[in-house]
Amino acid sequence: MRAWQVRQLGIGSSRYFDTAASAKGIDRFGDIQLEGNIEYRFNLGTLFTVKFKSAFFTDIGNIWYRTDYNDPRYKGAEFNINKLYTDIAVGAGTSLRADFDIFLIRFDWSYKLKDPVYSIDNFGWFHDIQLLRGQFQLGINYPF
Length: 144
Prior knowledge:
By secondary structure, this protein is mostly beta strands. It contains two helices and five strands. The chain has one domain (16-140).
């Protein structure tokens, strides 16, 4: 999920992990993970034997607990098939890739299109999107 920083997505649509827990440095772990990716890849050209490529992509998914462990702080963190649409996160972006034949370097830039933390407002779609507030990810080779 390239639109989020490491360990910043989830758990479910729980607000606890976005506010109080993050201030205390509590890491996010889950029991269930669901993730999917769609990419359209294309070539840009070659410069000094380095092949430059690009892509448009969408990442869809989230993590959950199996149960809320009877703890009111974890409300919304448990997996429930009836809340899947509410809890699912969607990010999208573009990428510049330098292909050196033996490895590839990816420069990904993406935005949170649907953030489950803000699911009470339009199911979290397009919450506070700003041009310069995307997420940069540096990667080596393809993510899958």
